[in-house]
Amino acid sequence: MVRQCTNKIKCSQCQRRHYNVMCPELKPVVSTGSDKLVDKAVENSNGKFNTLANPTCSADVLLQTLVVYLYGNDGSFPVRALIDTGSQKSYITKEAVSKMSYEPIRAEDMIHNLFGGVESKQKHHLYKVYASSFQKDYHCSFEAYDQEKICIDIPTAISGPWTKEIEKKGIFLSDKEACLDYSASSVHLLIGADIAGATLNHLLDGAPDCYKMTAQHLQKSMYVDNCVASVKSEADLTKFINESREIMALGKFELRGWQHNSFESLRDNCNESQNASPILQDIPVLGLLWNIERDTLKIDVRNDTQSKSVKVTKRYILSKCHKIFDPIGITAPITLIPKILLQETWKIKANWDDILPEEIAHKFEKWDRQLHQLNKLEIPRWIQGHKNSKHSLHKAAMKAEGDLPPVKEATVHQSAHDPKNTSGCTLQ
């Protein structure tokens, strides 16, 4: 559904396609709260933890919220929960802790890595939380840290004709059905990646014996809410898809949006399933673009041309670097250039929002104008094994400049496993 969305995001500051909070022209906000924000990392034994990946609030975007029941000595109590896989820990509001009379297990000091790279050191108490689904047909317990306020109020889903469509698909919105004593928009429980991931692993570990092979394949293929896997034949592909759906259905999960490079099976699935995604040529896979026809991978570089009014600062260069997501490192020689320029800004002790010298700005602008050429760079998804390989060993220069050193050939065994059919899907 995300790929079919026609909504176009536009910044109100510079009119380009990104959220307002990500605009490089946005003036920095100075915090005056009781919790002091620090620019430098504060080391401690507990480490640093990311929290709440998306702090913005919009009535047009539905976040993963649901109503659950908390259990304590005084009975059960319904609260609104938010599933946030961008948070490494789970949290519960102090108000909910007081309501349920939970006793703290221990206290911990930790550093929150917030949006924009801001770090905040806080002390939290850890509690054992007992919860169940809204229908009370599933119960669990997990550990969560207390927090005065998890996030701003998140609006519930707006009623309309589309609500009947999702009801036909078996999607139940507990936010609309529950009668909460608290405000309907308040969130009192945040379920982080530590609990969401453990729930999925528990489901796969307890899969029926007839699905053990597929469950083990899923455990090796899941990346957050995406599944990327390879199989040997179309028969194995069909079996993997069907059994994966049945396993996930046991935990009320749904693997949908299947895309793979077996066109015959893909068309059959599209005819059988109403929820199947249309056949697309370029499929987003873990931040990359997978061309299912040529079976190649490439970097998704958005054609965001630099505005003439934008001032080249150290902050702007860093934001441009972070827009290039390359988990396999094929663009390393290209992304090295702005990193070297950042090193030059450190030498002149430039602040984050200082206008950089013309020499550095000119080099960066030249690199930025040529950045769209990365869209033409493709590599094969499956590089077949060869009997010979070449190895080299040489020194690296101070600025990571490379050369062509002597090479040595070595014999290796060719892989007999050729995963011709690759599939990917999204967990909902």
Automatic annotation (TrEMBL):
MF GO annotations: aspartic-type endopeptidase activity
A single GO BP: proteolysis
Signal sequence extent: none
Pfam families, per database record: Peptidase_A17
Domain of life: Eukaryota
InterPro entries: Aspartic_peptidase_AS, Peptidase_aspartic_dom_sf, Retrotrans_Pao
PANTHER family linked: PHD-TYPE DOMAIN-CONTAINING PROTEIN
Protein name: Peptidase aspartic putative domain-containing protein
Species: Caerostris darwini
Protein encoded by which gene: AVEN_19968_1
